[in-house]
């Protein structure tokens, strides 16, 4: 089995860019797709990135995803931060027997 | 637009079995293009995948819960269900049902609103 490790929290000012990392503990990050979910308080998660770097329709292009095999990690980058981006963000990936979520990162836009 | 609605008891006693149902509207559990999952979130904590089912009845479960979990599908009612036995306080959580993205089993693109289950005597 493997784990996905995210920073507990990040903060940045409106209009700036923030990157949230997600490190896979074992197995290659490139071997299975990574998804990213946004969860606002009191709401169900919604997808902001799927298959490493694909945006669902309706998600602004301020959101982008990437993977880095050298650090075995995935990243979610949000540019032009808005106060509405303040939320918890979870990465998720899988292997042959399990789907695994990261512990979540609380993004504060202040 | 697909909608998912969880239903079931909000309170379960320790050692008992939890039964939840997810009713799907705007889509069909009989579609061969999607997988249907249960995911839970403990209060103030992160997300944990419980398992998924395909319309054929094929299932896959989280190894840490596999011995206690059963997911089933009722195509006539357009529903799928979760049973989790030997409940403990550690199973107290918000339980979500989800639909996968078309053609995948690993991306969850529609979520129900969640149903809170508390384990207490």
Helix content of chain A: under 10%
Spans of chain B of 5+ residues with little confidence (pLDDT < 50)? none
Head-to-tail CA distance between termini of chain A = 37 Å
Question: Which residues of chain A sit in consecutive blocks of at least 5 with pLDDT less than 50?
Answer: none
Radius of gyration of chain A: 13 Å
Shape of chain A: globular
Distance between the termini of chain B: 39 Å
Continuous helix count of chain A:
0
Give the helix/strand class of chain A: mainly beta
Describe the SSE topology:
The complex is a heterodimer of chains A (110) and B (121).
Chain A: E1 4-5, E2 9-12, E3 18-24, E4 35-39, E5 46-49, E6 63-68, E7 73-78, E8 87-94, E9 99-101, E10 105-109
Parallel strand pairs in A: 2-10
Antiparallel strand pairs in A: 1-3, 3-7, 4-5, 4-8, 6-7, 8-9, 8-10
Chain B: E1 3-7, E2 11-12, E3 18-25, E4 36-41, E5 47-53, E6 59-61, E7 69-74, E8 79-84, E9 93-100, E10 108-111, E11 115-119
Parallel strand pairs in B: 2-11
Antiparallel strand pairs in B: 1-3, 3-8, 4-5, 4-9, 5-6, 7-8, 9-10, 9-11
């Amino acid at each position: 089995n493997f784990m996905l490790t995210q920073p507990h929290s990040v903060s940045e000012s409106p209009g700036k860019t923030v990157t949230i990392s997600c490190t896979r503990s074992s197995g290659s990050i490139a071997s299975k797709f990574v998804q990213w979910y946004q969860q606002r308080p009191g709401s169900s998660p919604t997808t902001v990135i799927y298959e490493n770097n694909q945006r669902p329709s309706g998600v602004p292009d301020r959101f982008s995803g990437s993977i880095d095999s050298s650090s075995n990690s995935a990243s979610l980058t949000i540019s032009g931060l808005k106060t509405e981006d303040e939320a918890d963000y979870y990465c998720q990936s899988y292997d042959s027997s399990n789907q695994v979520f990261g512990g979540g990162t609380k993004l504060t836009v202040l | 637009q697909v909608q998912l609605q969880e239903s079931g008891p909000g309170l379960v006693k320790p050692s008992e079995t939890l039964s939840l149902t997810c009713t799907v509207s705007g889509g069909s559990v009989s579609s061969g293009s999607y997988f249907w999952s249960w995911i839970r979130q403990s209060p103030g904590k992160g997300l944990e995948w419980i398992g998924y089912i395909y319309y054929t009845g094929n299932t896959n479960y989280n190894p840490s819960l596999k011995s206690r979990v059963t997911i089933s599908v009722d195509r006539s009612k357009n529903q799928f269900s979760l049973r989790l036995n030997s409940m403990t306080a550690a199973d107290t959580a918000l339980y979500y049902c989800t639909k996968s993205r078309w053609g995948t089993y690993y991306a969850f693109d529609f979520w129900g609103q969640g149903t809170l289950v508390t384990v207490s005597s």
